Every structure is written in structure tokens, then in C-alpha cells.
Amino acid sequence: VAEIEISAVVCTRDRAPYLRRTLASLAGQILEPGRREIVVLDNRSRDDTRAVVQREFGHVAGLRYVFEPGEGAAANRNRAWREAQAEIVAYLDDDAVAEPDWLALILEDFATVEPRPGCLGGGIVPVWERPRPPWLSDDLLRSIALLKDHATEPRSLEGDQWLVLTNMAFPRALLEEVGGFDTRLGYQGRRLLPMDDNLLQMRLAEAGYGRYYDPRLTVRHSVLPDRISKRYFLRRFYWEGVAAGLLAADEHGFSRSERVREGLRQGARILREPRGLVELARDGDDDPVRFRERCLTAYRLGRSFQLVGLART
Amino acid sequence: MSPTETGLELSVVVCTRNRASYLARALRSLARQTLAPERYEVIVVDNGSTDDTAAVVRAATESTPDVRYHVEPEVGLSRARNAGWQVARGEIIAYLDDDAFAADGWAAAMLGAFAAFDPPPACVAGKVVPLWETVKPLWLEPSLVDPLGRSVDDGDGLTLLTHGTWAIGANMAFTRPALAEAGGFRPEFGYRGRKLVPAEESILQQELEDRGYTRAYQPAAAVSHLIGADRLKRSWFLRRYYWEGVAGASLSIERQGLTRSASIREALSQTAWLARSPGRVVSLVVPADDPESFLDRCPTSFRLGRIAAHLGISRP
């Protein structure tokens, strides 16, 4: 029996119509089915996810359905690599579509790129499920990873260029080594706390493993209708700020009082320019520059709230 | 079948226009074929792109030497396809859409299908598996897609095609002599910018059939065909159905040798059909979201296309 070389894992919740398409793109991979497995991690879906997977993809060789009753996206992501049987674990979002050579290229890259990266991934092309509104700039999309286009040639990423777990692969042993995803981060219920994938990349970097970007691994990622609203973006940026505060406190090893002081210092900066707060509250026009400013203010608020200890995570 | 003096057995023709990002993946799939590189060439026919198509082809040339870039300035898919086979050096010409991705064994399976029959078929249809970029919209019923030339799916084995089952352009191959004998694709049919005139593939295959050639279906020559979000718009389907009507009517005028007056009589009878239920015409311009009303609008658009062709207002 040939060994399974790569586990494609899809963590999902209540997105059966999108998942159907994601799984179709995995079932149609050109990599020989005997070399891969597909694991669907269903995090407490209440829609017909289980039925869709078992009825429509039950015939796909090497496809497994796993129900995860626990809370939170990061925990689900950890369950995923622990379930995986192969040496390489590739994450694909449940609302993304992979190119037919996605798995084959991941294996090729891990086998050929020197030095061997700790993780690799590709870009993200947004697929608009509703017409794109005029107030959304590419900048804004990039900063919350609805659009990723680091380079046209494969290369290592440096500095604050990060891969996103929308499409990303790791050697399973490394995930084990750094302890997987930090469950303090990650989406949970109404909490939109991102960056569990960023933090993981930082930990890999500390352990001496680089990250590699291959534009051929780019996936098509749906911008879901309920995300195409100003409300969603403002909330999302608030939570980006909360996560940034959490990471900053971690990184500097702040004591409780240092955190509060830093939070107040940043909060005071917002208060010095009250125009930003006014703009945040006022639903302005469709101007993308002004909307970006509002998102930044929401981000700063989230960061100082977190440092002061007001954000409920 | 013996290879030509050049030793090339297969020319893969990819026609494209302003879809550089799609083209890159199609070329990637052609670079990783199991067929030995010296047995095939790739020809990209650029039908007047203004994006970075040329750069994508240049980049592909670095990894696969036998990629050629050919510009066909006159817009039209049939013109581009004809330019493709006319500059090709291979004995077999295989067409791959720029939004398709060929399985590793695609080229080898295509050649295998031609070699499997004696005499060899003039045309081989490959298998087309759709890859949806977005969720299928509610209004998109299978009954709307099927009449537009659903991909051939004749089981799991290599088999001869029967009359009425046509290879579709996303994945089809021809012998060069047959293409030359039938005169290639008729340029007035085939998509031309916003004019979505269909039927160029089936007209050619009918022509081959009339000349006594056989055609085959090879499921092992599989491609995955990306259905982009831009295609999943109602306006696209309405336009497509309109041109389906235009193409159908024009072909019947031609094949039945209809006189001008017979053609106008036909237009009148179609108009009478529409006039009996004016609600249909009204519903064409009134937006509707539910699948059922859209289901009605496509045939109306189709009828309007027929009428326009019979009156000589729209020509393919």
C-alpha cells in the first residue's frame, strides 16, 4: 500500500453550499487519489453539512468526515492536524476553491524548495458573491486577507508579509513542535479574533522555519454576502486591533500595569483626534479613503481596549 | 497514423483574449503532461488581448520551450481557432480552452484515442468536468444549461460518438487533414466579443460527418473547466439564448434554402407566438429573482433571436 503523502483538511461550519464546491475542487485534484486524503472537520454545523459530505462525496476515495463538538476555530484547526495521517497537512477554507494542481504543487515545493520552509501558501483571489461596493479598496481587502497577491514569482516571505490559512500547508511534525494554533485567538462565536495563523508563523520563524509564497497555489475565495457590509468590516477591524493588542502584550511581556498604561497611551492618541471617533460613528459616503480611515479607528480602538482590559476575548 | 517530418504528433491550441490569469493555469497544466515534450507543441493564439497575456506566455516559454505565441488580431473565436491549426505543425490539433486545466495524461489520451480506431476518427471529444468558481445561483436550473451544449458524457470507456452528440470547444481534437478538408471553423459562428454566437463546433462536426468521417469520445482525456462568476450572470444567459436563436435560425435558412419571403413568414409566425403572451416579453425587461420566471425568460430571448435572424436584423 502506498503511503498517504498529504492530508487536505477543510474546517467548516454551516456553509454546506460553499463546502460542496470546495470539496469538488479537492476531489478533482490531479494528484493520484492514493497519495492524499481529504479530511472534513465539521465544527458543530447545524445545516446539512454532514448530509452533503456523506451523500455527495461519500464515493470519493480517502475522504473522511469528522465531527468536532468543541468551541472555536483554532481548536478545530488543531483537531484537524491531529486527525491528519500524512506528513504534510494542507488547509483549505470551506469557502475557497483550489486549482487542480494545488496538492501536487504543495508536495513539489516541500520536496524541492531549499531550505525547506516551515509553511507555504499562495495568494487569494476574491470571488464576489454580491457586487463589490465602491467603498472597499484593495488595500482594505489586503489587510484582512480577502485579497493576497504578494508576488508573481515564488519566493520566501519576510517582515510583516504573512500567509493566510485560507490556503496554507505545513509539515505535521512542525505543527506538533510549536504546539499548533493558539486557542486564545481564532474565531469563536461572535468573537472575530483573527491572527491565530499569524502567530503560528511567528512561532515557526522563532524556531528557525521560513514561510514560502507560491503564486501557483492561489485559490479563489468567496467574499460571502454577509461580509459585504460596512458593519462587518468595522467589526472585523476592531477585532484585528484586539488581536494586535494581545500579540503586542505577549511580545513585550507587559505586566498588567504596563498593558494598561500602553492601552491608555494609545487610547489618548485616538482622543487627541476626536474627528476619527466622530467619523467612526457617522455612516459616511462611499469614499474608499474615508472608509479606510474609519476601519483604522476601529482597529485602534480594539487595540487599546484589549490592552486596558476592556475587550472581552 | 505516422508523425509528420517534424516528428510532432500533437499541437495543442489555446485561444485566449484578456484572461492572462486563467491562461497561466492552462499553460501550467500543459507543461506537466505525461506525454514526452518532443511529441507535442503548444500554440497560444492571442485574439487581441490588452492585458499581460504576452508576459504570461513568455514566462511559460521559460519552463516549457515548445510554447509558441501567435497573434490573431481579428476578433472571433473561430478565426483564432483557424489561425491555430493553420500554424500548427502537429498531425493532431487539440483545442484547450483558456479556462480549462488538463489532467496530466490528457495529451497522451488524446493521441491514444486517434490511434485506437481504424480508420482513425477525424475528431475526438474529451471529458469536461466543471469547476465552479462560485456557488451555483438559485435561478440556474440544469434545464437552462443543457440546451447550450452540455459536455459529452458517454460513460467511462473510449467509444465512437453518434450523430447529434457533439464535442465541445473546451476540450476537442481533430486531425489536420480533416480540418483542412472541411475548411476549419466558420468565422461567422463562434463567440465574437459580446456576440455570443454558438455552434461553430457542431457545424464543423456535421460537415465531417457528411464527409463520412467518424468521431470518438475519450473520457481519459479529461479537463477541469472553470466556470467563472462572470458567466453566472443572468444577463449573460439571456444574451447567450438570444444568439442561440440567431444561430439556429440562420442555419435553418441556409440548410433549407429558405427564400426571403419564407423567412419573413416564419418570423411573423414566431412573433404571433410571442404576441399571444405579451407577459413574456414584458418579463424580459423586468428584473426577477426567482428561478421560475427566469426559466421563462430564456426561451423568450431565444425566440427574439430567431425572429431577428429571420428578419435579417441579426446575423451571426
Question: How would you sum up this structure, described in words?
Answer:
The complex is a heterodimer of chains A (313) and B (316). Chain A has 313 residues and is an alpha/beta fold. Chain A has 11 helices and 11 strands. Chain A has helices at 16-27, 49-56, 73-83, 102-112, 138-143, 172-178, 196-206, 230-252, 256-272, 274-281, 288-308, and strands at residues 6-12, 36-42, 63-67, 88-92, 96-97, 119-121, 124-128, 155-157, 167-171, 211-213, 219-223. In chain A, helix 9 (256-272) packs antiparallel against helix 11. The relative contact order of chain A is 0.13. The model of chain A has no long low-confidence stretch (mean pLDDT 89). Chain B has 316 residues and is an alpha/beta fold. Chain B has helices spanning 20-31, 53-63, 77-87, 106-115, 142-145, 176-182, 200-210, 234-256, 260-276, 278-285, 291-310; strands at residues 10-16, 40-46, 67-71, 92-96, 100-102, 123-132, 159-160, 171-175, 215-227. In chain B, strands 1, 2, 3, 4, 5, 6, 7, 8 and 9 form a 9-stranded mixed beta sheet that branches. In chain B, strand 1, helix 1 and strand 2 (40-46) form a beta-alpha-beta unit. The longest helix of chain B is centred in the last third of the chain and has 23 residues, at 234-256. Chain B starts with 9 loop residues before the first strand and ends in a 6-residue tail after the last helix. Chain A binds chain B through residues 17-18, 20-21, 24-25, 28, 30, 97, 99-101, 104, 125, 127-129, 216, 220, 222, and chain B through 21, 25, 28-29, 32, 101, 103-104, 129, 131-135, 224, 229.
Task: Give a quick set of tags describing it.
heterodimer; A: 313 residues; alpha/beta; eight-stranded mixed beta sheet; three-stranded mixed beta sheet; B: 316 residues; globular
